Amino acid sequence: QVHLVESGGGLVQTGDSLRLSCAVSGRTFSSMAWFRQAPGKDREFVASFFRSRTNTYYADSVKGRFTISKDNVKNIVHLQMNSLLPEDTAVYYCAGSSTLILSTLGSPESYGYWGQGTQVTVSS
């Protein structure tokens, strides 16, 4: 059985940092991503690696502040978030796919496996 379990969320202030983790069990995915969803908004793409942990992509809103990485030994995906802003407040989800194509990596529908999410709240 496949499980994705996020952790590391919390309440921080503007400018602080957080590191989210997504522990994957039961399967290894060639591509993984982080998405986020704020209240009343659609789930949006944050960051991903595509078929290689060195082939990374980021949403413009987080580029330069967030970094996605993967520990292949432990099968854990991290999202290091620096210089956090109030608009980063959302529930953050990790997602996995082994059939992803590059043109759809930003689409939630392209990922078949999801974690339960972890709340990140950034106060101003």
Describe the structure.
This protein is mostly beta strands. The chain is about 0% helix and about 50% strand. It has no helices and eleven strands. The strands form two sheets. Strands 2, 4, 5, 6, 9, 10 and 11 form a seven-stranded mixed sheet that branches. A hairpin with a 6-residue loop joins strand 4 and strand 5. The radius of gyration is 13 Å and the shape is globular. The N and C termini lie far apart (about 40 Å). The mean pLDDT is about 95.
Secondary-structure map:
Blueprint: E1 3-7, E2 10-13, E3 18-25, E4 31-37, E5 44-50, E6 56-58, E7 66-71, E8 76-81, E9 90-97, E10 113-114, E11 118-123
Parallel strand pairs: 2-11
Antiparallel strand pairs: 1-3, 3-8, 4-5, 4-9, 5-6, 7-8, 9-10, 9-11
Keywords for this entry:
124 residues; mainly beta; seven-stranded mixed β-sheet
Integer-rounded radius of gyration:
13 Å
SSE pattern: EEEEEEEEEEE
* Record field, number of beta strands: 11
What is the structural class? mainly beta
Distance between the termini: 40 Å
Q: Major sheet: size, sense and barrel closure?
A: 7 strands, mixed
Give the helix tally. 0
Poorly predicted parts: none
- Fraction of residues in H or I helices: under 10%
Strand content: over 45%
Shape: globular
Instruction: Kindly report the average pLDDT value.
Output: 96
Assembly form of the protein: single chain
Question: Short summary of the structure?
Answer:
This protein is an all-beta fold and 124 residues long. It is built from no helices and eleven strands.
